[in-house]
């Protein structure tokens, strides 16, 4: 199993209301990919953060293997969400991908 984590900081010029709307659209778009992309085991977007956070939202996803993750990155359904819901509003993106054993997928 491969874990794919992303943290985003949204653009500063967005109002709090705009950020709330953007986060909802990102969550719906990305979580809506489950069942559409081969090898995508789970996908969750965390949009509610504590005040101590310095990121606005997080993607937490699991893939069967590294090849499935590579396929996800170029899959048309993912690219559409990334190009229309994420990239136009993200200021900073951090990514961490790692292999994990099948015993602790959470």
Describe the structure.
The protein has 106 residues and is an alpha+beta fold. The protein has a single domain, classed as Alpha-Beta Plaits. The protein is built from three helices and four strands. It has a four-stranded antiparallel sheet. The longest helix is centred in the N-terminal third of the chain and has 16 residues, at 16-31.
Question: Which terms would index this structure?
Answer:
106 residues; alpha+beta; Alpha-Beta Plaits; 4-stranded antiparallel beta sheet; 3 helices; 31% strand; globular
Q: What's the layout of helices and strands?
A:
Elements: E1 2-10, H1 16-31, E2 40-46, E3 57-63, H2 66-74, H3 76-86, E4 90-99
Antiparallel strand pairs: 1-3, 1-4, 2-3
Summed up:
The protein has helices spanning 16-31, 66-74, 76-86; strands at 2-10, 40-46, 57-63, 90-99. It is an alpha+beta fold and 106 residues long.
CATH class division: Alpha Beta
CATH topology-level name: Alpha-Beta Plaits
Which strand order does the major sheet show? Answer: 2-3-1-4
Task: Tell me the radius of gyration.
Answer: 14 Å
- Shape category: globular
